[in-house]
Amino acid sequence: MRSINLIDLRENMQRNEGEKPVKTVKPGNSSLVEYLAEIWKYKNLIFVFAQQEFKVQYVQTRFTWLWVIFRPLMVLGLFTFIFGKLIKIPGLSYPYPLFAFSGLIIWNNFSFMINSAGNAVLGSQQIVKKIYFPRIILIFSKLLVGLVEVMVSLGLMLVLIALLHYPIHPQLLLLPCFIFLSIIPGTAIAIWMNALTIRYRDLNHFIPVLMGFLIWLTPVFYPVTLIPAEYSFILYLNPLSGVIQGCRWAVLGDTFPSPLFIPSFLASFVFLLAGFLIFIRVDSELADYI
């Protein structure tokens, strides 16, 4: 069933009342410029959907906003106990909680984009089937929610730096640049997932398995020095590895990411642009497959 445009609905009501109909704008295959113009037209929906997501996740729970703080701290506590106490990382010259948290900020945001934004269209199918708007707005609203959690995590990291009496390096000001780079691959994968899972629902079962595998190939809780040189190409293929290395350079004063990460960063941008163009082509057909 094709979704009903709000403008179409208004026109039909006006015709029934004998009024002069307004101009109808129907969803279709738009160019990139036209689609961006539509996103700008419906931009307020991004904040409406993000606010709704906040209410569902936090406001309607018993501890409300405290979950934004509890969740990363619980994962950090688990990692610190396992890899800081039981299995100690050799040759680590930084406080392990701060080392792990600088990687968790990136991974948690990436994981949120895949698990939440990657299912944005299917999760809002009741709205998608009734009214028309650029469906990519649903993904952007999830991105906004994830960014708020990132900001809270950054505040927690500053508190952790103060509690551990770790010196603050000037390059800490560049940390937002690496966080931005981490958003690119997460958004790209989320857009591709929304474009493909409408027809190929099996991807919803494959992605969680992939995420559980990918975290072991990403230096979230271990340093890149643990990877043998003959397998280091695996890290260079993963843009998140370079981003996490950049965050640790900004926070801990660790080594700067290798230039060998540049191709994976560029590939993320190309993947994002290609996904955006594909999503534009299938946007008008999404409601027919739900």
Précis, in short:
By secondary structure, the protein is mainly α. It is built from 14 helices and no strands. Helix 4 crosses helix 5.
Task: Please bin the fraction of helical residues.
Answer: 55-70%
- SSE string, helices as H and strands as E: HHHHHHHHHHHHHH
Cα distance spanning the termini: 8 Å
Overall structural class, as computed from helix and strand content, comes to: mainly alpha
User: What portion of the residues fall into strands of 2 or more residues?
Assistant: under 5%
Globular, elongated, flat, extended or rod-shaped: what is the shape?
Answer: globular
Poorly predicted ranges (pLDDT <50, ≥5 residues)?
Answer: 1-7, 17-27
* SS elements, strand count: 0
Q: Compute the gyration radius: what is it?
A: 22 Å
Number of helices: 14
Report the mean per-residue pLDDT as an integer: 82
Largest beta-sheet characterization: none
Question: Could you explain how this protein is built, in words?
Answer:
It is a single chain. The chain is mainly α. Residues 1-7 and 17-27 have low confidence and may be disordered. It is globular. 66% of the residues lie in helices and 0% in strands.
Write the layout of secondary structure elements.
Layout (H helix, E strand, L loop, with lengths): L5 H11 L15 H10 L2 H16 L6 H21 L9 H20 L4 H4 L1 H4 L7 H28 L11 H22 L6 H12 L18 H4 L2 H14 L9 H22 L2 H4 L1
Helix pairs in contact: 3-8, 4-5, 5-8, 5-9, 5-12, 9-12, 9-13
Tag the structure with descriptive keywords.
14 helices, mainly alpha, 290 residues, globular, disordered N terminus
